[in-house]
């Protein structure tokens, strides 16, 4: 997984398009933690419905990305990824590990240049 500041979204998208990637974009849901983020990622990647509620099913379905998308060059652009990392670090880690293990998926997570809860930042 690549972690980049939010202002790099459009340049990265343009680069991936030029390289012939199938690009899927997801935004971390405002509420819901692990399951809401998992469901959005599964929907965005066109995975079977069960992959949105079952982590093992998600890991298995990610192996089928080349068949689902018709290419072995699939990229997931994950906007507001820092929201999940700040709100539920364990959920961030779990989803990150599953996505990182997918051989035919490039994941680019976008967030603020400085991560953490606003209350943790100096005034």
TrEMBL record:
Residues passing through the membrane, by range: none
Domain Barstar (barnase inhibitor) per the UniProt entry, residue ranges: 38-104
InterPro entries reported in the protein's UniProt record: Barstar, Barstar-like_sf
Superkingdom of source: Bacteria
One Pfam family hit: Barstar
Family: Belongs to the barstar family.
The name this protein goes by in its record: Barstar (barnase inhibitor) domain-containing protein
